């Protein structure tokens, strides 16, 4: 791959260099320098001739130069514009005489609100920021490459915009990240926004091989985009902004624009990032008490095939002899991310070419946690005649990963490791004959003996398993044309394809605890999206003060998905870990086809350069809608009034520099899952329990067919979100301070869900319906301060605040629906009426104020006073212990109350930049299922308490149950270690039914970034290494987390992007703390 | 710009729009409108395989394990089962959706589909078999959950009322009788294709199904015996027509050829979890006392060579292991076909029903017929009165090993053996809670919290207050 890439780049560079030389004879040369009003150079500014599509970008010194070909320099006048992010654009008129040398410098005023910037608004449309009538957040390339986990573009959006909640599953290479904009608007699916790259919708699904709560990590597919290729990301948050994508936009839209070439000298960038990752590991494990039970001696078991206790309720471990089963799993992970980019062009041709190699070696010991991505991109445009510009954008990515079994899985790495008593040496992982040594069966004599035993895998056996891999090839490419047949008419056409083939294998070798005789899963996934987007735009001015733009478009989209899942069981020989080496194979194939055919139109009217009105509608036809509602309309209307233009003429200076109000209303939708509108029978139902034991639909060679558990519905129509938004943007003190505030109210109706129905009534447990209603309301605030803007110093401070309140208002008569694959009995993901989507259900102990009666007839509330009832005080029985209450209820809401981020950057002498980012999340509970289980086994730090006498709620669990009531108050329930042991091994531990006792506050503050960049652009740099500048950056990411959460990390989640429910911690993998060294060479 | 040129532009635009936009069938047809992943029709034989799988699951899967733990045939030693065993802390999720499974795929809905199709096709053989399967399914549902929706089931009307448990048993007797009648009326050939090889137990043999149905009728009459004294005579009459030899046994007839076709006990305890242990000394002492060869089937007796678990009586290196070590083939063998409705059960029902109706001589003879069939020592001829009843009940308990619901129903009805509850503050549960999913979609199902341990429905047959020897019942 590496060799292929370099050859490819060399060829491209050669082609382009010859083209630019030819263009420089006898035309008009335009050059100059672009600086800010303090005199500092502005690199990366584009300077271009309007209407001619000719221009260049400034270098690190702010200088630019380009040549207008003689054929196009006919002595006419033209508008020369300089534009750069963060500054107000300026234009001057120049005369293009042949052979002339024009020197034109620009001094640009800071424009913190970035008002003049062009903002991509979707489906081929764009506008300038000051004309935006709905909220769109922009994240530019510098912010993306600086952030915590830039390898995955979704992770890179963390803390970048208010109410954009990003969660990265763990710090493992290839872990998925999920993103949620303004809360969840639906109760099915994972509420991920639509991802659009250069106008083309792409796939961002997260597909687990064997279930999100176990198996291995599997990434979200947007991570296939090389972040180094990204110029900017637009986040379409409001329905009014997203309505242009109709029935696919209910969760917002992420518009990614990749970098492109500019006319002028060919620019090269070579960048190398090296990242050293270490896990963030709090103290989860006790190191005092060894293997065994009853606080007796440490159980040692040395005979062949002896079975040892699974618990750490034994005697004290001699000083210095305890093993640290958490830290011993990890070493330093190293990621190297190397990119080469070339761009340039002339007045008719531009190109951008890039190659990237990202190699992540994870933090687990051993060679089996890796994720490598190699990507190439070639993007070019060609002006054909005076009116047509055609372009192409080709990209190919090759991903290869090696993974470790995780989660709720007796073959998961953390599960076996954390349950191991501190007295047992997991590092002595194998017997002399090569058999694994799990702590419960430490001296196996044979494979057969292990097959008959019960244990969790030795974590090093798990880490040594090479059987979990994937290889993916993907191309996202398009052809586009931009045609201006008439001065007032523009036609844009984009035809693109997104295809990937993901080859996966997930194999458990012989003696794996969850498949003792071994297993091999082969999973092939193929996905193809073809998208065609055609739009026409008409612009017209009515005098000087009214501009009108009308856009009409059409979109055709086809999505073809195919997968083939082969489950092989019982290995024939110990190796290879391949399907043909299994005794039995079971195959499943799934394929689907979805089509979309849509029309849309929007009109924008700009009155007196201060009032912008935007109205539009999209008509969507989806093959997935029911036959009776094949098409649906999504209208939008919005208005923005830049009242500062009315007040002070629009010069954006003074104490009150700028002010804009906007109101927007829009409707978006969501399509049903594929084939939810049709019925049939199942070939693959199984008959068993949630413990995996089950009988197939084929028995003794006889094929079975049975009714569907979820009934289809031919009347399904799209979900509909109706959102109103009101916003204010303002700047003060010569734009040194700016702020934005947005309030929104989104009502979702006809929300599609598999409504739980009575099986006794329907013979099925669920039925698809448009039934639920939801509401999300929220507030977003952004404040930016630019206290120092001088030639040699610039200091910026930014604060963001976002809060969202989600509320499930109805679920078609049901009180709740559960996501059976998300969580466990005792803590299961759900949507429940009266709560935000994705709350966790389970049971609690008996508490006051809940109208409970005990089995012996005791009226609980009668034993509580009014205060205790109001506090829902914990009711303690006469023995001083809480009593399990079997009522199924909401026990945790993982949705945060609000989130904030604080960022700052200080740039000195235009060479040295310090930056920092602090991310704060307040609220959002996490079910710490890991703690519950470790308490049961006696390995958790909670169990240090075993040698103390104590009262429940006074000496233990006071943070979770601060108030107690009932006859057991004051009773010392725990007198001996045995009392603690029996409590933790019963209702007080994670295998009891009471999930609520492990729900903790997931609030945190994370120091996401602290970095310093030094830019070297001295002459010796050019002379010595041949580059115009070099940037050296040293940074730390996720340096510290402040949290009360007792588990590994309040952010990590059992399922990644494949779960709607967040806040489930069950033997999750840790997040990382990183040290970064980056070198970037530019020319 | 000339008019002609403008016209040209419009023509190009029109063509572009037309080329991509004017396919009327772009949104329908082929795999856009029908799922390529699912069949649209199911033959009778297709339907019958999942129906049997669901029945096997009900009788030898999780419901059998949970009820078997309550009846102390098994003990839960780890994780969820440990809590269930120690404190009976069940909740509406304990059943893992097993109540919904009664009605949904492979359950009642597909039995009704099968019955409807069989009727349309005039296949009385298959119809009769389907009806007997329906009786087996719904009778067991009543065992587990007590009052349960049956007469109003599958009518697509919201909030159906559950029938009283006794009413369900009555309906079950009717559908079993109807099944028997259809099988008796059946003639070979013609429209009676029957299940053929899709009948994993009997290959479509009507006589075997008829006998099995009579044993089932006897079983469900026994379950009501405590509140309906006449039921014992009815059970006796049915047992006399029931399964008369091991060749007629109905088992979980799995092939064991792969994990998804293996003995569910094996799958759970050996392959996936290992969360259960055999019940304690009660059952073993009964086996030992009668030299019952099933001891080797139920248990693996501890020897130094086969130590696998940290069972208290069998620590590694112990000089002379005496206790029980592990399950025997009944759990450890993936190909073992768990007996579900058997000659032995029929014989013991006959014995107890005879005793209850005053015929002690037949009772003893039938007890010893069962003992002889399994190879155990006979009971002495002198055995009579309450000791004879107790001996029969204990023998039923031994025979019900791995058939959790039956052991549990026996205990609920007779308090034999007189089990000591594992929780000092709780009684042994008399039913499982309704599924959370089923409860929230039917307002006529009472909530789990009706008394935190609402382990009985109003019409559940009364629990025994004394055991087979007349002693006070400890666990009810």
Brief overview, please?
The complex is a heterodimer of chains A (1083) and B (476). Chain A has 1083 residues and is mainly beta.
Helix/strand structural class of chain B: mainly alpha
Number of strands of chain B: 6
Work out the oligomeric state of the chains in this entry.
heterodimer
Provide the spatial order of strands within the biggest beta sheet of chain B.
1-3
**Radius of gyration of chain A, in angstroms, nearest whole number:** 31 Å
Class inferred from helices and paired strands of chain A: mainly beta
Distance between the termini of chain A: 25 Å
Largest sheet of chain A: 22 strands, antiparallel, barrel
Most extensive chain interface and residues per partner: A-B, 114 and 122 residues
Kindly, what is the distance between the CA atoms of the first and last residues of chain B, rounded to a whole number of angstroms?
98 Å
Tell me the radius of gyration of chain B.
27 Å
Mean pLDDT of chain B: 86
Compute the number of strand runs of chain A.
55
Number of domains of chain B: 2
**Beta-strand percentage of chain B?**
under 5%
CATH class of the largest domain in chain B: Mainly Alpha
Sheet with most strands of chain B: 2 strands, antiparallel
Describe the structure.
The complex is a heterodimer of chains A (1083) and B (476). Chain A has 1083 residues and is mostly beta strands. Helix content of chain A is 8%, strand content 47%. The longest helix of chain A has 21 residues. Chain A starts with a helix and ends with a strand. With 476 residues, chain B is mainly α. Chain B has two domains: 366 residues, Serine Threonine Protein Phosphatase 5, Tetratricopeptide repeat; 74 residues, no CATH class. In chain B, the strands form three sheets. In chain B, strands 1-3 form a two-stranded antiparallel sheet. Chain B has a two-stranded antiparallel sheet with strand order 2-6. The N and C termini of chain B lie far apart (98 Å). Chains A and B meet through strand 24, strand 25, strand 26, strand 27 and strand 31 of A and helix 1, helix 2, helix 4, helix 5 and helix 6 of B.
